[in-house]
Design goal:
The chain is an all-alpha fold. It contains 5 helices and no strands.
Length: 179
Amino acid sequence: SYFIVVCASILLSGCNRTQKFDQNLSLGFEKAKELTCLSGVVGEMTSRTWHKAIFDNKDHTGQYCFNFNYALETFYDYLEDEGTLQLIRTTKKELDVYVKAMADCPRSRKNAYDDFINYVTDVMALADLALEPKGSLNAYSDNIYELVNRIKKEQDVFEIKYGEFLVEVNSSSTFNEDW
């Protein structure tokens, strides 16, 4: 009788651990998609602003500007004032919490975890570029374009390979740091 109770509790705790992992994976995956969208848009807007400043001597509002550094600075001031950059920073932190919560993953989810970490590494790189543009206009634009395309492919492959692990999540729910 004692043996049956111990075995049952071990099985139930393993199932609970897998369910918790699947929930964190699902929420993390949704958060990563959100961060990709935000960062991709900022990256593309940054490329356009940079290009207009160099070739048209205009900032993001269409006003004359004397150099591209000034144009980027005023554009990023605008993004900061609008809360866009803070939203990217916050979303990165939230994603990081989900990643840390998944670190103790069940053996049956090890491949999903490893693929998710590779995917998140690219998402975080895109977010970092969106927050701090680096390099030349051409290098920056190429990096943004390549990362966005690679991430979209990774998302599609992940959903195909691990869709059965992704549980329905309420995307309108607010983030709870206690998870």
